[in-house]
Amino acid sequence: MDPLLTIAVASSALFDLRDGEAVFQAAGADAYRSWVREREALPPPAGPALPFVRRLLRLNRDVPAPLVEVVLISRNDPDTGVRVRNALEHYCLPIVRCAFTGGADAWPYAEAFGSSLFLSAHRADVAAGLAQGVACGEVLPGALADDEADDGLRVAFDFDGVLASDEGERMYRDHGLEHYRAEERARLDQPLAPGPLQALLSGLSRIQVVQPRLRTAIITARSAPADRRVVTTLRAWGLRVDEAFFVGDMAKDRILRLFRPHLFFDDKRQNAELAAGTAPAVHIPFGVLNPR
Questions:
Q1: Does domain 153-283 have CATH number 3.40.50.1000?
Q2: Is 105 a catalytic residue?
Q3: Burial letters for 249-262: b for 16+ Cβ neighbours within 10 Å, e otherwise?
Q4: Does this chain's domain 5-139 share its CATH topology with 153-283?
Q5: Domain range list for the chain
Q6: Candidates 30, 62, 147, 158; catalytic one
Q7: pTM to 2 decimal places
Q8: At what angle do helices 29-38 and 18-27 cross, to 10 degrees?
Q9: pLDDT digits 0-9 by tens, 17-29
Q10: Which CATH fold topology does 5-139 show?
Q11: What is the pLDDT, as a whole number, of residue 177?
């Protein structure tokens, strides 16, 4: 039986591998290979996405069939990837499917594994994948949400340009706030088109039917009257979230401190970087806010 949700993660999202990357950039592949082999038994520090992945995999406990699968896709070659495989065991991450691309782009393989999301710390990989219609997000360095006494999993999303298309963002940018509000009021009953992470929310919603430890939230700059269209859109998709915050121009980190997500997704880089000081954050470089 197929899992309800599959995601793919790069080793750069799970672990802090910046010291090894510095060796590779400064001294080349052979020096990097020697450096990694000397440290195969030394696990790298946890990366911001590790708590999210760990809790996601814990949702498979006490259920008759796995609900979720996580696939590791790494730019390492099979030889230098040994340290990564050892790190999975060290952090007790039951990830069994892995791909080591030997420096080739990792994101194309996310679709091959049936993934609804590919997480990486490499901005260029994420941008290239999104340009080809693959749901990708750049994990930003910052806060770790890893309270072992907390067995839940909380995931938060911005709305426009993340769960939904960036139609609203474009309208606001092209015509200004008053026109945007008038149009949103006129279109209260018209759902927006899906954005890059709609399939991820769909998978999480299916999991919630059997795993109440998972909670979801929307934290968006939309406010009345534009908030109504969020509900219209979710109803049209047959999806739900547990909480929603329509904050206008208020900083989102105020809400993040209370909801305490294990991952927060936003298409505005400035918002994602601010959030990363409070909670693990992912930038989705999609739409009008992220011109190529």
A1: yes
A2: no
A3: eeebbebbeebebb
A4: yes
A5: 5-139, 153-283
A6: 158
A7: 0.94
A8: 140
A9: 988 888 888 888 8
A10: Rossmann fold (3.40.50)
A11: 77
pLDDT band for 209, please (50, 70, 90 cuts).
very high
Q: What is the DSSP string of the chain?
A: ---SEEEEE-HHHHB--HHHHHHHHHH-HHHHHHHHHHTTTSPPPBPTTHHHHHHHHHTTTTSSS-SEEEEEEESS-TTTTHHHHHHHHHTT----EEEE-TTS-STHHHHHTT-S-EEES-HHHHHHHHHTT--EEEEPS------TT---EEEEE-TBTTTB-SHHHHHHHHH-HHHHHHHHHHTTTSPPPB-TTHHHHHHHHHHHTT-TTEEEEEEES--TTTHHHHHHHHHHHT---SEEEE-TTS-THHHHHHH--SEEEESSHHHHHHHTTTS-EEE---STTS--
